[in-house]
Amino acid sequence: MEIREIQKVTPDDIQVSEGVALFKLDQLLDKARSNSLWPLTFGLTCCAIEMMAVGSPRYDIDRFGFGVFRATPRQADVMIVSGTISRKMAPRIKTLYDQMPSPKWVIAMGGCAIAGGPFKYPGQYAILEGIDKIIPVDVYIPGCPPRPEALVSALLKLQEKITAKKD
Amino acid sequence: MTQTQNDTHWITEGLTVESALEHVYAKNGFHQEFVISKDSLRELAQRFRSREYFLECLSVVDYPDHFECCYQFNRWDKIHRVLVKVRNPDKTHPHFPTLSDIYEGANWYEREGYDFFGVIFDNHPHLTRLLLPETAKIHPMRKDFKGDSGTDVEDVLALIEYEDHQYEKVSQELKNKYQKDYFINMGPQHPSTHGVLRLLLHLDGERVLETYPVIGYSHRDHERMAEYKNYLQFTPNMGRMDYVGAMSFNFGYIGLIEKALGMAPSPRAEYIRVFSTELNRIASHLLWLGTYLLDLGAMTPFFYCFDDRENILDMLEMLTGERLTYNFFRFGGVAYDVPEGLGDQLKAFIPKMRGRLKDYKILIEKNIIFMKRTKEIGVLTKDQALSYGVTGPMLRACGIAYDIRKAEPYSIYPEMNFEIPTFPGCDTFARYQVRLAEIEQSLRIAEQAFAKMPEGPIKGEKAPKVSPKVPAGEFYFAVESARGHYGEYLVANGSANPYRLKQRTPSYANLSSLSSMLSGHLVADVVAVLGSTDVVMPEIDR
Ligand code: SF4
User: Which of A26, B89, B385, B490 lies 20 to 30 angstroms, CA to CA, from B504?
Assistant: First the structure.
């Protein structure tokens, strides 16, 4: 009930001074979330090294508030699937995804996570051809491996997606 | 290095030998070959073991009328590669004797043989699947296996169900069996398992009793892919097997095919190969140093090391166009010539890196926490190293100067002036020392190779324009990767793709020794010891 009350408030009703901005509550939450996306510390194969590189001084994703890599899924907001998904590993990825609290987002990094990448050929027996076959994906980054800049740009895209108008 | 091995009658004396061959080492990488009967194998292995040969590799090959186990034995001090083959005509359930009690390193090779080919090693202590999930019903490397493409999601769902069920069952069993001890799982998602390794630790309180590494979480079927693709199409896989030191793997594969084709790269290409490989080795060691110290709780070294590493990646990117998964070597040469400006960057980088090395040394070795956490932790004795077939910096930390670049010199390494650093500590600290000293040596090699590089074309005259056909035969070629002995065993049948390409990767043997390094240590040391092995999982899982 109370939330509705707040939403009805218009700028005219309150004293607006400098340094104050007005949001709907869910927009405010989205804004906050999008600026403190905590990724899960979770690397699969080659692409994971580029994921580590974004934490290094040259790319420094702390600038955007994405640098707080969490080792436990229960504290993470975004899962970066960075690498080939073997059939043996896929159930674990599903479990990790299920353990993350909502709202949660997934980035498929690299050709392998998108659709099997270079390991897809007729008759392959080892990999899952794309992570979106078992969990939903928000942003896809092509590349083999994608450059660190591409990962940063994907996170910014995700920010856009989170803060976009929903109605 | 061709040697005549005069005094080798002890190998087969009194055993049933079906055939014996003297090979020309320079041609296919072997000195001698024996085909022996199944019953003589264990006796023969014991002889090799007592004479300090290590088990270099075990490859199973599926021939139309029999299965063949190819064991390779070799020495650290004086190269003598002996190929021993045992055959079994039973095409459904072939049995072979196990060597896992003679060479502990054979344990995983045999499990892999069972996994890929359905070959049964009698009396093996734990013959279960190694790389494929337990629910798998296939033996994918058999020639009659036709593929499994459409079933990926089904397989995953079946595994999810199986694991849920299995978890209950196993934990109940363990509870009944051990009242006091307990088991914990570390990984496959764990920040310090460097990818997707799972360790099942059997603990008594804080002490580790036994460690069971569970691998295969990044199995990507490289070996079967090699049989499916032609020789040229397989080259990109090399950058993806050990992506941290991809140049060495390029070197290994391209070198193997060149050896099989009897072809030499152009002189300029040799120098480009060597300096790029050495730069890549430094990048690999820097990545290790940064993440290892991160594992031990130090954050800043990660930033320093990655900063230096980025400088190297810049140079390699100028040269190859890629940052990580290089696909740069070509049969008979390299893909691109050295671009303008690379020389200046390299000249600026080398002194800078030398200065940084000094800083690292002081910062790290004056840190009492680091010293206490690494000294006399994770000791691997020389005999254990032999038994597991450990190579690379881990072996050199046992005081043994075995390095392929000196032991079986390839390319232009004989012309280079460098040393093989060894340290006698056998512990994790010694491994750190070796790697740091190797950075210095690699700088030396890179500097020399770049300075001596001749003008000329970057591809040899005989370089094939299309994917080559390798003449029938068996070949082995090894290089020193950042993690140790990387070798490939190729069985070619004259067609456009390999009949069998076995990858002998260094971390595979190195990781299998983990269990003996860890027993008796505290849980907190697991990370310190595991980190010191510097494993790259996809290179193990292949
Ligand atoms: S997309 Fe390429 S770099 Fe990334 S994991 Fe797959 S093979 Fe490796």
Answer: B89
Q: Hey, where are the domains in chain A?
A: 39-118+125-163
pLDDT confidence of residue B282: 92
What number of CA atoms fall less than 13 Å from residue B231's CA on the CB side? 28
Ligand 1 centroid vs A42 CA: distance in angstroms? 15
Provide the 8-state DSSP code for B119. Answer: -
pLDDT, chain A, mean = 82
Q: Is the peptide bond before A145 cis (omega within 30 degrees of 0)?
A: yes
pLDDT tens digits for B196-229? 888 888 888 788 888 888 888 888 888 888 888 8
Q: Report chain B residues whose CB lies below 8 A from the CB of A83.
A: 218
In this structure, is residue B117 part of a structural domain? yes
Q: Is residue B303 part of a domain?
A: yes
Whether B116 and B226 map to the same domain: the answer is no
Spatial distance between the Cα atoms of B25 and B31, rounded to a whole number of angstroms:
5
The helix/strand/coil state of B465 is coil
- Enclosing domain of residue B46: 3-131
> Rounded to the nearest whole angstrom, what is the distance from the C-alpha of residue B312 to the centroid of ligand 1?
21
Kindly report, residue by residue over B457-489, the tens digit of the pLDDT.
Answer: 888 777 777 888 888 888 899 999 988 899 999
- Structural domain total, chain B: 2
Q: Which of B131, B155, B178 is the last residue of a domain?
A: B131
Complex confidence, ipTM: 0.82
Q: What is the pLDDT of residues B307-337, one digit of tens each?
A: 889 999 999 998 888 888 888 888 888 888 8
CATH number of the domain at A39-118+125-163, out of 1.20.1090.10, 1.10.10.60, 3.40.50.12280, 3.40.50.1820?
Answer: 3.40.50.12280
> Residues 13 to 42 of A: which have CB under 8 A from any B CB?
41-42
Q: Which of A53, A160, A166, A95 is CA-nearest to residue B290?
A: A53
